């Protein structure tokens, strides 16, 4: 890297002059306050790249016409070594894509999805959160910026995972902003409880649509992107490559163990478990990691969308709320989110959250003990 001293930009505050950083990129001048001047002789704040949240990861080729894309700059205006490798902003104009590790999280507006977004943001990822509620998504974007300590840490994309066109639009939006995707987290889901005879077929279909077919379509749509990221990891040792991209499914205790009064819900999660297991056999050699995170009982606002069926449905709902508040073995969204991140980082096939639930699942697997008899089921 070469540098030379230049005078401060016209209209900028006096102070120590910083060097111009040359990387076969557009030349940027900076004053003591870090304000940039590139074809912007009046140092207009409206065109100040820092004011627009542009980060050092936008590499502008040396022959780029910066007038055509005034909010893009190449080197950061302070010491590049002090900047995170993935500091980005989604509010970029033109065809320039952000670098750094990127995670896409469905169901990212609340609960475990929101908590996972915060974890990945703190770890330096570019975070894309997708869900059906734009207002809540925007709050998550703001929370991610605060958690990461940088503007533009996250981007919101409204999306209904049961709508194939919207899922493909999500993929297109992500690829328009980022060079690739390193992790896809399927956190979207709904819950229902009731006896088999009390649960209508329409509810069973809704559960399958959201909990199984939604993640199925998301995985299928993003798989070509993940294949591209897994190119370097292909071959006989692909399963051990640490840099391979990850596809994470949130299943649950009820997907592993038959749970009384949750036949439709358990079936949807069991289908997702089987999808993950079979998909792993297909894509592992292509350099793609498939992981499953199995929460037990999570203290989140999933009850807002939960359905309870039968004569005692509403009473059951109240009892379930009290159970969530008082049960010491339940998990917080943050605990499950940490498990999601660790699953992707360690490339684990399966991560159970909560020791009692993991033990109960093992007891059922090896001894046939059905935990439906315990109080929380």
Topology of this protein?
Layout: E1 2-5, E2 19-22, E3 29-30, E4 36-37, E5 102-106, H1 111-122, E6 126-131, H2 134-148, E7 154-158, H3 164-177, E8 183-186, E9 192-193, H4 201-229, E10 246-250, H5 253-256, H6 263-283, E11 289-294, E12 307-308, H7 313-326, H8 333-346, E13 350-352, H9 355-367
Parallel strand pairs: 5-6, 5-8, 6-7, 8-10, 9-12, 10-11, 11-13
Antiparallel strand pairs: 1-2, 3-4
CATH topology of the largest domain: Rossmann fold
Helical content band: 25-40%
CATH class of the largest domain: Alpha Beta
- SSE string, helices as H and strands as E: EEEEEHEHEHEEHEHHEEHHEH
Quantity of strands, as a count: 13
Query: Whole-number average pLDDT?
Result: 74
- Relevant CATH superfamily of the largest domain: NAD(P)-binding Rossmann-like Domain
Family: Belongs to the short-chain dehydrogenases/reductases (SDR) family.
GO molecular function, one term: oxidoreductase activity
Region (Disordered): 32-55
Pfam family, one: adh_short
């Amino acid at each position: 890297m070469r540098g030379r001293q230049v005078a401060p930009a016209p209209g900028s505050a006096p102070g120590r002059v910083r060097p111009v950083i040359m990387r076969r990129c557009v030349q940027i001048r900076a004053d003591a306050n870090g304000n940039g001047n590139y074809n912007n002789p009046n140092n207009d704040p409206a065109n100040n790249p820092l004011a627009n949240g542009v980060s050092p990861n936008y590499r502008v080729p040396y022959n780029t016409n910066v007038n055509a894309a005034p909010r893009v700059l190449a080197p950061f205006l302070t010491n590049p070594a002090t900047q995170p490798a993935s500091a980005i902003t989604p509010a970029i104009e033109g065809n320039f894509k952000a670098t750094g590790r990127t995670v896409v999280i469905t169901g990212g507006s609340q609960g475990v999805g929101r908590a996972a977004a915060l974890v990945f943001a703190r770890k330096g990822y570019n975070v894309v959160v997708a869900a059906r509620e734009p207002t809540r998504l925007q709050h998550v974007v703001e929370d991610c910026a605060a958690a990461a300590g940088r503007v533009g840490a996250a981007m919101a994309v409204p999306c209904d995972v049961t709508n194939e066109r919207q899922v493909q639009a999500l993929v297109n939006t992500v690829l328009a902003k980022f060079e690739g995707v390193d992790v896809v987290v399927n956190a979207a889901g709904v819950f229902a409880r009731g006896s088999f005879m009390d649960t209508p077929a329409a509810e069973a279909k809704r559960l399958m649509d959201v909990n199984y077919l939604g993640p199925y379509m998301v995985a299928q749509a993003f798989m070509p992107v993940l294949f591209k990221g897994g190119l370097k990891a292909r071959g006989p040792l692909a399963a051990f490559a640490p840099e391979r991209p990850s596809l994470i499914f949130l299943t649950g205790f009820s997907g592993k163990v038959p749970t009384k009064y949750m036949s439709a819900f358990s079936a949807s999660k069991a289908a997702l478990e089987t999808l993950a297991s079979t998909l792993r056999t297909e894509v592992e050699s292509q350099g793609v990691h498939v992981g499953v995170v199995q929460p037990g009982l999570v203290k989140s606002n999933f009850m807002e969308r939960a359905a309870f069926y039968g004569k005692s449905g509403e009473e059951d709902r109240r009892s379930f709320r009290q159970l969530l508040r008082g049960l010491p073995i339940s998990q917080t969204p943050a605990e499950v989110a940490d498990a999601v991140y660790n699953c992707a980082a360690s490339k684990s096939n399966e991560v159970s959250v909560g020791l009692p639930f993991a033990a109960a699942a093992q007891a059922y697997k090896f001894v046939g003990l059905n935990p439906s008899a315990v109080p929380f089921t």
